[in-house]
């Protein structure tokens, strides 16, 4: 899959069949759309194109709102789109100037002159242009004028996209990673760099890797203890993760993300790892003493190993 941040680089795309949206999560609803997009591209000997915008429109329209939480970074989204077979991914810069383009200007400047669209695959409720003035009927009329085709994505698929996005975020914020997995069709994951910690886990016999997730908008699931799988290079390891403030050993500490690998011995410092959430084990608890905490960690490890033995 080729990635573009400048429309001038897209001129070589063959018979572009385009869909557009944020595609956050690239979840099961999105996957239906991508399947249809690829099918439509093959019908006209063309290539599939996903057009998205960055920064997220909310960041530009509401710059003082810092509550945006997304399921994927742009890098993660690109990797997911590629895994589902998309040929081209265009990340167009969203700005106030861009947001003021009329529906006609958007179609002519971006889709026709910019990308050379052969076909658009959009939902019946697709809106575009300044103040969302353009709708499916507008696009159909402009398609006749500029000589490209429009394929309507069914209402059922579009509604699945909206409902699923909301449910995934809610499920993760509730710690329900199993429901999130059902809607994503893959385990929700975080990527980050291992940074130095205070070494408390090592003192307890459970050395942990402290993970720095550098993208501030990446959604972090609910505080608690999770069974996880950890990708380190080409290897995959079993682990247990704590998201929280470590109430037994710290006072008013900032939230940390720490993972203990059950079947690995080595230094992870400064390495990039991927952590996939398999199941939530329990809430984070304040224990009366470190001894009780250590007993619980041993119980957590036992539960993790049992879970992985039942679900290899």
Features:
Rossmann fold; 312 residues; multifunctional enzyme; 10 helices; Elongation Factor Tu (Ef-tu), domain 3; 25% strand; alpha/beta; 6-stranded parallel sheet; kinase; 6-stranded antiparallel beta barrel
Task: Describe the protein's architecture and organization.
The structure is a single chain. By secondary structure, the chain is α/β, with parallel strands linked by helices. The protein has 2 domains: 2-169, Rossmann fold, CATH 3.40.50.620; 188-310, Riboflavin kinase-like (Elongation Factor Tu (Ef-tu), domain 3). The chain is built from 10 helices and 12 strands. The chain has helices spanning 28-43, 57-61, 74-83, 96-99, 103-115, 136-146, 155-173, 177-184, 200-203, 290-310; strands at residues 2-4, 16-20, 47-54, 88-93, 119-123, 149-153, 189-195, 209-212, 224-232, 235-244, 256-261, 272-282. It has a 6-stranded parallel sheet with strand order 1-4-3-2-5-6, sandwiched between helices. The chain has a 6-stranded antiparallel beta barrel with strand order 7-8-11-10-9-12. Strand 2 (16-20), helix 1 (28-43) and strand 3 form a beta-alpha-beta unit. Helix 1 packs antiparallel against helix 7, helix 5 crosses helix 6 and helix 7 (155-173) packs antiparallel against helix 8 (177-184). The chain is elongated and about 75 Å long. The two termini are 31 Å apart. The mean pLDDT is 91.
Secondary structure: elements and pairs:
Layout: E1 2-4, E2 16-20, H1 28-43, E3 47-54, H2 57-61, H3 74-83, E4 88-93, H4 96-99, H5 103-115, E5 119-123, H6 136-146, E6 149-153, H7 155-173, H8 177-184, E7 189-195, H9 200-203, E8 209-212, E9 224-232, E10 235-244, E11 256-261, E12 272-282, H10 290-310
Parallel strand pairs: 1-4, 2-3, 2-5, 3-4, 5-6
Antiparallel strand pairs: 7-8, 7-12, 8-11, 9-10, 9-12, 10-11
Helix pairs in contact: 1-7, 5-6, 7-8
Function: Catalyzes the phosphorylation of riboflavin to FMN followed by the adenylation of FMN to FAD.
Catalytic activity: FMN + ATP + H(+) = FAD + diphosphate; riboflavin + ATP = FMN + ADP + H(+)
EC number: 2.7.1.26, 2.7.7.2
């Amino acid at each position: 899959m080729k990635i573009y941040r400048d429309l001038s680089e897209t001129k070589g795309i063959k018979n572009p069949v385009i869909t557009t949206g944020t595609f956050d999560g690239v979840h099961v609803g999105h996957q239906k759309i991508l399947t249809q997009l690829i099918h439509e591209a093959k019908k006209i000997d063309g290539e599939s194109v996903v057009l998205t915008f960055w920064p997220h429109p909310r960041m530009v329209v509401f710059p003082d709102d810092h509550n945006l939480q997304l399921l994927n970074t742009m890098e993660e989204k690109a990797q997911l789109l590629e895994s589902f077979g998309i040929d081209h991914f265009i990340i167009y810069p969203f700005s106030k100037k861009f947001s003021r383009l009329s529906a006609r200007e958007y179609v002519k400047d971006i889709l026709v002159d910019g990308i050379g669209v052969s076909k658009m695959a959009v939902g019946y409720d697709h809106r575009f242009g300044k103040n969302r003035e353009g709708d499916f009927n507008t696009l159909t009329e402009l398609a006749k004028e500029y000589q490209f085709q429009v394929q309507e994505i069914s209402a059922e698929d579009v509604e699945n996209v909206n409902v699923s996005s909301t449910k995934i975020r809610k499920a993760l914020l509730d710690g329900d990673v199993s429901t999130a997995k059902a809607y994503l069709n893959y385990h929700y994951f975080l990527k980050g760099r291992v940074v130095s910690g205070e070494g408390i886990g090592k003192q307890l016999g459970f050395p942990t890797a402290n993970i720095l997730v550098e993208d501030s908008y990446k959604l972090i699931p609910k505080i608690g203890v999770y069974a996880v799988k950890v990708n380190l290079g080409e290897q995959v390891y079993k682990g247990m993760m704590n998201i929280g403030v470590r109430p037994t050993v710290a006072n008013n500490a900032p939230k940390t993300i720490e993972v203990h690998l059950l079947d690995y011995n080595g230094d992870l410092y400064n390495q990039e790892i991927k952590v996939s959430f398999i199941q939530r084990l329990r809430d984070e608890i304040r224990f009366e003493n470190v001894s009780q905490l250590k007993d619980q960690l041993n119980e957590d490890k036992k539960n993790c190993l049992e879970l992985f033995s039942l679900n290899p």
